[in-house]
Amino acid sequence: MTLEATVSMGWVNTVIDAARNLGVPENLLLETAGLPAGALSLERWPIDFITRLWHAAEQCTRDPGFGLKVGAGVRPASIDAVSFAMQSAATLREAITLVQKYQRLISDGGRFQMIPGSRGTWIVYHPRQGRLAFSPHQIEAVLSAVVSLTDWIAGSAVGPVRVQFSQARLGPLSGYREVFGCPVEFEQAFSGLLVGNEVLDRPLPQADPALARVHEQYNAGRLAALEKGAVSAEDLRQWLVARMGPNLPRRAEAARMLGLSERTLARRLEAQGYTFNSLLDEVRRELALAAVRESGLSLAEIALSLGFAEASTFYRAFHRWTGMPPARWRKQGAH
C-alpha cells in the first residue's frame, strides 16, 4: 500500500521553535492552525497538517522572513539520523545524494534534484504539496536549510553562487542576501541553489567510510520500516468498497490484512485525518448515492447490501448524508 505524504516531527518542531522565538507560543500556533488535540504526540504529520501550521505561523508572526529564519535555525535534530549520514559522507555531493535517497525519513513534501554543469551544480527543490497549497515560506525554509546544513557539515560557509525561487519575493532583498550571501532571483522556472563543483567535491573534514556504512544501514532499515508500515486512507477506502456487503468490514479485519494491530491502524489513520468509522461512513454514502440514483433495486435491498440491519436505519443515514429521504432524492433525480 502507498503512504499519504507525511513529515517527520523533527521538521515540525523546527517550525514551532522558530515561531516561539518570535513570541508565538505553541498553543496559539496550533489553535490558529486548527489542528486536533494531541497532534504533537503523533509519529508523523500528514503534509496538510504542517501546511496549516505554516499558514498559521505566517498569520501569527506577520514576519515576511519567517521561512528564511526557520531554515537558518535547522540543526541536525531537524532531520534526525539523516544528518549524521551526511556528516560521515566523503563529499557534499555524496551527502546531498544521501538526502535524495532518504528524503522520506525527513518529509514526503518534496524531493531534491541535482543538475550538474561544467562549473557548478544546481540543487533543485521540487515541492510535493497535499490538498492544501504550500505556503511560500515553506519553500524558502527548505533552501535556507540546505545552506545551514551544508555549512554545518563542511565546518565552514559553503556559499552558493546563485539562488532562485519560482515564487515572488516575500521580504526585503537584504534578508535573502544575509542568508544566502549571493544574488537571489525570483519568479524563475524553478527553486534551487547553484553551488560550485569544487565545493561539492571537496573532501569533508569528518568523512568516515566505516561510520558512513553504519549510518547507511540504519537509515535503510528505518526507510524500509516506514514503507512496510505505510497505510494510505485512499487504499483502505478502496478495500472497503470491495468488501462492502450485508456484513460490514471490521477494523480488526482491516488491521489483520495490513499486518498491524488495531491500535496502530487507528493511530496511522488519525495521522491522515481519518478514523476507520469515518472512512466506512464515506464509502457507504458513496455507494448508497450511486445505488439509489442508478440501480433498480428497492430501497430495502440497497439498505441490506450496505450492511444496514433495518431499512429505517438506512433512511436516517441517508437523510443525514443528503438532507432528504432516499425515495424523495431518487424521485428528484439526484438534483
Let me know the number of strands.
7
The SSE string, one letter per element, is EHHEHHHHHEEHEHEEHHHHHHHHH
**The first-level CATH class name of the largest domain:** Alpha Beta
Name the shape in a single word. Answer: elongated
Sum this structure up briefly.
The chain is an alpha+beta fold and 335 residues long.
Task: Write structural notes for this entry.
- This protein is an alpha+beta fold.
- The chain folds into two domains: 6-224, Alpha-Beta Complex (H-NOX domain), CATH 3.90.1520; 233-331, Arc Repressor Mutant, subunit A.
- It is 56% helix and 10% strand.
- The protein is built from 18 helices and seven strands.
- It has helices at 9-21, 26-33, 47-61, 66-72, 82-88, 92-101, 103-106, 136-154, 173-180, 197-200, 209-228, 233-243, 251-258, 262-270, 276-294, 299-305, 311-322, 326-331; strands spanning 6-8, 44-46, 110-116, 120-127, 162-164, 184-185, 191-196.
- The protein has a five-stranded mixed β-sheet with strand order 3-4-7-5-6. A two-stranded antiparallel sheet has the order 1-2.
- The chain is elongated and about 75 Å long.
- The two termini are 36 Å apart.
- The model has no long low-confidence stretch (mean pLDDT 90).
